[in-house]
């Protein structure tokens, strides 16, 4: 920036006083001050915009690197899961898919867990769904752990004192 000292400012003020005149000098000084302030704000805004663009560009680069890394991890996981599931299918059917010419050419059919445990009408059976929750969870959320028949429930809650009564007594 321009190096303005006290002596240079005094010289500029004296020249302005002579050229402009004492009547218009305060108005011109206010206008010049406003223009200089406006120019400084504009320069600061441009600097801030440039720095924001640089930061956005860096963030975009980081995002693309992160997405690429996530895709690589996802591909690796899918590959490992596929390999392990293929190995399990081969072990369950007793065949080796690589010996038969690749995956998808298995002669044995292995039902999935859902297919093996579905009741009629394509819904999972009640026992499988109830057995899927641990007992501690059922106790914590007041879910019945076992089912009683109506007669067993009546017997359990009937008072034990006195002789047993029949319906016709």
TrEMBL record:
It holds the Pfam family TatA_B_E. The keyword Protease does not apply. Its main location: membrane. Keywords: Cell inner membrane, Cell membrane, Membrane, Protein transport, Translocation, Transmembrane, Transmembrane helix, Transport. Residues 92-114, 149-169 are annotated as: Disordered. The keyword Transport applies. Signal peptide: none annotated. It comes from the Bacteria. Part of the twin-arginine translocation (Tat) system that transports large folded proteins containing a characteristic twin-arginine motif in their signal peptide across membranes. Together with TatC, TatB is part of a receptor directly interacting with Tat signal peptides. TatB may form an oligomeric binding site that transiently accommodates folded Tat precursor proteins before their translocation. HAMAP family: TatB. The Tat system comprises two distinct complexes: a TatABC complex, containing multiple copies of TatA, TatB and TatC subunits, and a separate TatA complex, containing only TatA subunits. Substrates initially bind to the TatABC complex, which probably triggers association of the separate TatA complex to form the active translocon. This is Sec-independent protein translocase protein TatB. It comes from Cupriavidus basilensis.
